[in-house]
Amino acid sequence: MTVTKIKTDVSAVKQLLASDKEFLKPLIQAAVQETLEAEMAETLGAEKGERTEARLGYRSGYYTRSLITRVGKIELKVAQDRQGRFSTELFERYQRSEKALVAALAEMYVQGVSTRKVKQVTEELVGHAFSASAISAINKRLDASLKAFCERKLREPFPYLILDARYERVREDGIIASQAVLIAIGVDWEGRRQVLAVELANRESRSSWKEFLEGLKGRGLHGVEFVVSDDHPGLKKAIAEVLAGVFWQRCYVHFLRNALDYVPRRVDDDCLLELRWMYDRRDLGEVRRDLAAWLGKWGGKYPKLTGWVEENIEETLTYFRLPLVHRKHMKSTNMLERLNEEIRRRTYVVRIFPNAESCLRLVRALTVERHEAWLEDHRYLNMDLLKQHKKEALRQAA
Asked: Closest Cα partner for 145 from 103, 91, 101, 187?
């Protein structure tokens, strides 16, 4: 019988809560109001109307403040004191929660959810609909923080630099065009990966990449010894001009993709697979021997391919200058490609951005998210190995 009674009571409570959405609102409002009064009493050292020698001040009326909670919008009376001692942390915590909520709603807008649907969702969740102007205001604050991140001073040296670009479709003045998203990742001497810059350009060109790299140097980029990128002509020229003297590694993955342009559409033999195997070798001498054998084997059947490979493959072998355990990480732009894949997955929903600002906002937000995750991880590379490798190279040179 007792069990049955408990079940009935629980069912009744559930029914009450389901039938009256306002059931919890007055309870929460009373609890929060009581919390505010208790905080004021603690600040002044006395309850309202209490006479005591320990009193630190006196009240001076109230002001009203709205608070959006999970059960809806509640109105509160916030006490004030004459000396301005009282300051509650409650609203600071609320503002952080509100900012997280509005940022999530802003992403819903960006990803194509209609204003009407977003308002419906917010009304259902919190009993309050955020206006488009509220979304715009939070976006402006978000833009400022993202810009500050991407323009921060780079104080520590970054011996490794990885550069790449991807394209997003953006509507400008009623015309849909592709915009290049230029991204730079650095590895510092602690072995940590960091997102250094994310910028938009009308296209990849020598001038756009040069401006991008000069911006990095203007922010303090220094100590670069090794750069990885694809074979874009404008990017190559910009690296040579702005980062003169660094070792450049042509991404071998891009190189293998480019090789497809020099063979028939259907290649049924192992020619390209054997070329790919070159990059699994541990020794540069072994690569050169295998390359000579590969050229001799396939030169007759694919002369266009073998001629192109022989002329360009050296640019993809720069990574042999690095410590053995660093090579698999630094012989390609795969580190950045994985970030690009995440960006592509999130921007695919948008398809066409309404303007350049919305595109840059979302891409920067995603890269900052990844940057923070990288900093929380253990170091990506043991840079002590690079220091030892350099010392050994100097000793052998002497």
From this structure: 103
